[in-house]
Structure prediction request, 677 residues.
Amino acid sequence: MISSAIIIPKIGQFELNNNNFTKNVLDRCKADVTISPLYQPPHSLWRCKTVMGDVTKLLKQKLTAENYNRLMALANPKLHAFVADAIELTGAESVCVCTDSQEDRAYIRRQAIEKGEEIALNIKGHTCHFDGYYDQGRDKGVTKYLLPAGSDLGASLNSIDKQKGAEEIRSLLKGLMAGREMLVMFFCLGPVDSEFSIPCVQITDSPYVGHNETILYRPGYEQFRKISDSPDFFRFLHSEGELEGAVSKNVDKKRIYIDLEENMVYSVNTQYGGNTIGLKKLSLRLAIQKASTEGWLAEHMFVMGACGPAGRITYFAGAFPSACGKTSTSMLPGQTIIGDDIAYFRKKDGVMRAVNVEKGIFGIIQDVNPHDDPIIHEALTRPGEVIFSNVLLDGENRPHWLGMGPELPSEGINHSGQWHKGKQGPDGNEVTPSHKNARYCLNISDLKNMDPRMDEPEGVEVGAVIYGGRDSDTWVPVEQAFNWTEGIILKGASLESETTAATLGSEGVRTFNLMSNLDFLSIPLGRYIRNNLEFADGVENPPLIFSVNYFLKDKNGKYLNTMRDKLVWILWAELRVNGDVEGLRTPTGIIPKHEDLAKLFKKKLGAEFTRADYIRQFTIRIRENLAKLDRVEKIYKEKVADTPNILYRTFAEARKRLKAAAEEYGDNISPIDLPAE
Ligand code: SPV
Ligand code: MN
Prediction:
């Protein structure tokens, strides 16, 4: 008997059932046509009738047989249309479709060096990349959501009319890859073969961007095989644009535009990782929206294992704005690391579980030294795959950075070109030897303390969530919230931080930063808070929530803590999660007793923690706390139309408690006077 299914010719290693294939293509196309009317002529590849014909024809013309077969082995019409559209738009001369193989990864690494985007350093596996002088951080001003007519993301999110924005960025991308090779690379957000996994395709003309991604993300080519023709994946199209001395030249035409309807991000005329590495902050924006519709959470958080007594491990997730101690908390000595930047959370059987979205670290290098960050320092100074960016190179191709310990050379090469001490940049500012946002990129598997459960598809159970910012005068070093709701509202949703060099703009300005995720939110702020509040519903023992503050100062502006003290705050929190120690009740939460901290300081750091230290650091500053509530509430009232009422009620209760305490104790409450919880 002749089967009614028609077998169409073999494409790569796949045989496709033509009936299903056609039906799926048509379904897909219907979706594309309705959600993306914008990509009508001149972007005709998005039109239904062309998917089967023009796309395949164009791909066949432009790709070598090997690359064509690699792409077609992924039987996904939406993917094929994306690649074809990118070729047509950017005018790429050739296309390299990368699989997960070691050979393909090695090719990308070689290309980064051959194209001059990376310089080989004097330790095996180490390279250095420079971004342009004006391309040293995430550029919030030119990062925008493409907003379809009639939708509203609230006043706090930067957006542009979708039609106008898409036309603008597509015209900027037009022809930019002429004479260049386009890289088509596949990765997976989260562990592979997991409920958390999100397959992604990155198109870029920058092997540096591709190289970073091979370090930072799990491979995804095989994941694309598995999802077959599903349209459920993220897409990133990046071009570094015209180059001058291997850096993006047209900084005034830098744009990062995010299309939430299409789960796609465009990025152009920039190289800095936070603007270009699709799976990092660009995908976080897409994931926050996806999570919101599907009932999970995408957070700007590390995940680490805090080691308690008798080999116990309690997993912590922590949100800090950039450059506020997040990475160094995630790799505290004696603890285990799962991830340092982005986590996804899901509920399973009444338990909150988290994964690291990444498998590498793109961390700030300033102040990494053997004393404060021994693990990372060790990984940065021995052979292994590391990309340094925007550090200072000496004449022997050795990297140097601010706060590394030894005195820095007085000349070398850095992001400003040939550098010497006292050099002024084109903006008239003195150029520091390495940029304050200079970074390293490496595999977590190269760290001695990688947690063995790092790649587990179901993630780890979260015992505690912590929120921290750069706060010189208000929060105590560590405090537990009374419960999940208070924690989300008075800790996460009240987070403020003094700005740093991780984004362009002035430093040291106190800014509101909701759960340290504000830069990446793609849904109205009130909805995001509500999602977090409701996430504890149905969870038997929600994680405890803590605030931490590593940056508290005295009246003379001197820091009250050393960098190493954070280990003690985390280990105290670990004891709290497991019910091992009692605390003291403040108007805003529960703080440690002196004796418990003194024991931890002695045992873990070999240091004294005197009663005077304790009183200085844990005195509750009532006026500052009240002022903070006023500042933050004003923002919600004026800027966040959909603020949930429970936030105002919780603020009112906290205010009442603070005022009552002020009447009893005065403006500053010594912890010695506080009652047990
Ligand atoms: C951050 O700034 O939060 C980072 C680095 O993790 S970036 O890639 O710029 O987002
Ligand atoms: Mn980050």
